[in-house]
Amino acid sequence: MNQLPYYEQIDRENVKKLRTMIRELPPFCPDFFRGIEPHTSSRTRIAYAYDLKVFFDFLKKENPVMGKMDMKDITLSHLDQIQVADLEEYMEYLKYRFNDKNQEVVNKERGIMRKISCLKSFYNYYYRRELLKNNPAALVKLPKLHEKEIIRLDIDEVAMLLDEVEKGESLTEKQKAFHNKTKVRDLALLTLLLGTGIRVSECVGLDITDVDFRNGGIRIHRKGGKEVTVYFGVEVEDALQDYLDERTRMVPVEGHENALFLSLQMKRMSVRSVENLVKKYAKIVTPLKKITPHKLRSTYGTSLYRETGDIYLVADVLGHADVNTTKKHYAALDDERRRSARDKVRLRESEY
User: Fold this and answer.
1) Which of 12, 61, 108, 223 is catalytic?
2) Per-residue pLDDT tens digits for 172-192
3) Concatenated DSSP letters of 316-339
4) Does the active-site annotation cover 219?
5) Of 60, 294, 306, 327, catalytic
6) Is 312 noted as a catalytic residue in this protein?
7) pTM (2 decimals)?
8) Which residue segments constitute the domains of the chain, with CATH numbers given?
């Protein structure tokens, strides 16, 4: 049997996980997940299942009627009795709560917004199908979001980061022992992230056959399964070539033969392992910035926008479905470019 592509393996695992999560929800919920399947990813549906579990747990704890019921006995008729005030109470509950393991959970405004957005989609689905008479979720206002500062690496920090990956001079003695075994891989991986702006999930999903040196591109699978080619420059090419020379001598674990980036256990690297790798090096170079793989993506987008001034090109290369997402991230650079225009036009020749 041929080995499934990485993104198909992940999707299959997500679907299995989702089925288990849905079984814990009231019996009418599977209809909702079937309804949204055509236009959502399995990862999004898992997030929805988690958020709905939090909502029904809230009803079990706080609602006088449903508190005495088993979750499986909750019906759409019970949801029809929910009012706006109940959902506002739910928003307050989300700020500070305890989960099933009695662990403290604190949701900030973005976490609360995601859970209320899920609830709006949930109510809308049944309301449009006339299975609910009321739609209180439509009347609830989403929390106001405060814009977060976009954290990225400066040009000199990028150079320092890659130098540290290459030399490892500031690592601990224990880290240096691992560094000698992984520095070629680490340099190729970080150079690829910084030189293409691909997502960490797209990076770990790469197979050896996805790299095309003749045309200078890699084949990746975007969110939603769309297959695209992302092109790379000479620096990325050199780093990948050096790593592939090393990669050909490795013997992967069965089922991981096609993976481009391998761990020391000779398995495909995980998203978490790449996050830890980035954190390890970035903490040395810029300890006051919390750098993640996504921040490397922002760094690439910033550099590309500064060089081209073309927001549509940046959106296309980064794989943003909506250019407004890109504009929001790089609005500060627009102001920077406008400021630079003030010295471009001379009204009179300087006397000096």
Assistant:
1) 223
2) 998 998 999 999 999 999 999
3) HHHT-SSHHHHHHHTHHHHHHHHH
4) no
5) 294
6) no
7) 0.83
8) 6-139 (1.10.150.130), 155-340 (1.10.443.10)
